[in-house]
User: Which sequence fits this backbone?
């Protein structure tokens, strides 16, 4: 290689070396950082990352289900979504992550207390304050959100105690004659039309929310489940991309958990969060007792980590400038 | 010739580097265009965050009140109102925290443009569209710019065929503060209707 071509070659190498191949980890982790994200960095890089100390986990679907789907349809979609994360191949072994269904729950509240808990998956209508009347305007939950995952955690260490997935069952009910969600066929959801929108694939939505459930933030890899797909009529979010697999394998590397592990939630299992020990309804102004001991995301460091991006940008620009200046000096000598 | 090649490679390298800083998205929220943010906002202010304080709702969930000192009222603030409280879901009390991906965070001292809707009988005003209703003001090389807060959100929008499609939201790239405020004031005066994303 001639000396004249060398700077350009270095530059080309630097550029391509910094572009992540499809299997380079670029996911983010949710962290304890509560300050606003500043700048264009894809991930919040400060704070402790979220994690489950005992990743032998259970979940339960609220027995009142959705008014748009049968309980059997919901159960099928949710179970398959959890299995998708649990059955990932981490180099020939599964991640150290077990999910067990507890059967139906009676719990539409995202809560954590020391009288027993359940990681509940509930469809809310009214969406918002479950204690409010359906016709009350109460915007505790964002009316434009399809689903939110509420994670209860240790304030400083990031250890997750409980996670609840709330799905907006009131969403656009006036325009979705068939409902906003469905178990779509493998070929994709029916597209609908402008006046009569088609449904979204419930399994895809829940698969994405389970990513948050286990502490994964979002990814800047476009084919990842933890990224936005371009067409949500598709069912592609059901299938994890290599970046999602890297995330779950890095956070929960293969271990010794099996299907017989103890999946009891912290504080014990309580499938009914709406009645007290005497079977009386818990009033909306009587929360469970909060234990005394108790966003954002952090990029993974593997490969071309997004946390390195600002420096990569600076480095590339400097190399480029050096390449431009060098021939000029030569001509003057 | 070499200089031209180097320039080409330099431009390529910058574009390559920019590819690495594509914005990230997370929780699933319907994207709102700027006119929709204005339309759904009862109150729009430019202000500075004074402090944040977490409390517990009667049903056990956590919420956080952020006190904002008003610098400029754009919509909905009475003349004698100098501060406004905006509420977000989640927060930390002692060593227990409740986290909701997509809810905006605030830093004390930062300047923001807030699009807020009044809460119901149980809540205070909330940002419209979770983090979409928070525009952060930054000063870069003497120029004040605004960027939309979109951390933790996956913004989606119905396309012409009724399906969901990824959306860039109301403010895809940073804008000059004065230009953005002019646009918002115009939409407020115009009645902020329509559906023109």
Assistant:
């Amino acid at each position: 290689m001639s000396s004249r071509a060398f700077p350009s070659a270095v530059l080309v190498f630097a550029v391509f070396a910094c572009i992540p191949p499809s299997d380079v980890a670029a996911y983010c982790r949710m962290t304890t950082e509560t300050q606003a994200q500043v700048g264009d960095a894809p991930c919040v890089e400060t704070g402790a990352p979220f994690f489950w100390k005992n990743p032998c986990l259970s979940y339960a679907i609220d027995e009142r289900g959705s008014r748009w789907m049968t309980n059997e349809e919901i159960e099928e979609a949710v179970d398959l979504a959890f299995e998708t994360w649990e059955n990932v191949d981490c180099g020939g072994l599964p991640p150290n992550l077990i999910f067990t269904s507890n059967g139906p729950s009676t719990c539409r509240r995202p809560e954590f207390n020391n009288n027993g808990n359940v990681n509940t998956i509930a469809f809310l209508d009214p969406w918002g304050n479950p204690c409010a009347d359906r016709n009350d305007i109460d915007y505790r939950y964002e009316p434009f959100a399809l689903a939110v995952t509420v994670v209860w955690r240790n304030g400083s260490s990031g250890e997750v105690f409980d996670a609840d997935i709330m799905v907006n069952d009131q969403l656009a009910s006036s325009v979705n004659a068939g409902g906003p969600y469905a178990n779509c066929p493998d070929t994709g959801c029916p597209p609908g039309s402008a006046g009569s929108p088609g449904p979204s694939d419930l399994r895809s939505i829940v698969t994405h929310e389970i990513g948050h459930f286990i502490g994964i933030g979002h990814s800047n890899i476009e084919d990842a489940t933890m990224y936005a797909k371009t067409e949500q009529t598709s069912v592609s979010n059901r299938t994890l991309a290599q970046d999602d697999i890297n995330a779950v394998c890095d956070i929960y590397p293969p271990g010794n958990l099996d299907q017989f592990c103890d999946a009891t939630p912290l504080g014990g299992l309580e499938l009914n969060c709406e009645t007290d020990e005497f079977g009386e309804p818990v009033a909306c102004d009587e929360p469970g007792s909060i234990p005394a001991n108790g966003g954002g995301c952090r990029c993974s460091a593997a490969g071309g980590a997004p946390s390195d991006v600002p420096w990569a940008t600076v480095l590339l620009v400097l190399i480029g400038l050096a390449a431009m200046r060098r021939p000029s000096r030569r001509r003057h000598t | 010739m070499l200089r031209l090649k180097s320039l080409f490679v330099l431009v390529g390298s910058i574009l390559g580097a920019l590819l690495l800083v594509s914005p990230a998205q997370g929780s699933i929220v319907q994207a709102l265009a700027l006119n929709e943010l204005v339309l759904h906002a009862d109150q729009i202010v430019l202000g500075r965050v004074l402090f944040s304080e977490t409390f517990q709702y009667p049903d056990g969930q956590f919420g956080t009140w952020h006190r904002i000192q008003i610098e400029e009222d754009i919509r909905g603030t009475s003349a004698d109102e100098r501060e406004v409280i905006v509420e977000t879901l989640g927060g930390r009390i002692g060593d227990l925290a409740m986290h909701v991906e997509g809810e905006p965070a605030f830093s004390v001292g930062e300047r923001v443009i807030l699009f807020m809707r009044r809460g119901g009988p149980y809540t205070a005003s909330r940002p419209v569209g979770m983090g979409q209703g928070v525009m952060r003001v930054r000063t870069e090389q003497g120029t004040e710019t605004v960027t939309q807060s979109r951390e933790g959100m996956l913004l989606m929008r119905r396309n012409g065929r009724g399906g969901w499609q990824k959306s860039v939201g109301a403010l895809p790239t940073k804008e000059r503060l004065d230009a953005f405020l002019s646009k918002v004031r115009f939409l407020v005066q115009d009645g902020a209707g329509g559906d023109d994303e």
Helices of chain A lie at 6-18, 71-86, 202-213, 242-251, 309-332. Residues 1-6, 9-25, 288-318, 324-333 of chain A have pLDDT under 50 and may be disordered. The radius of gyration of chain A is 24 Å.
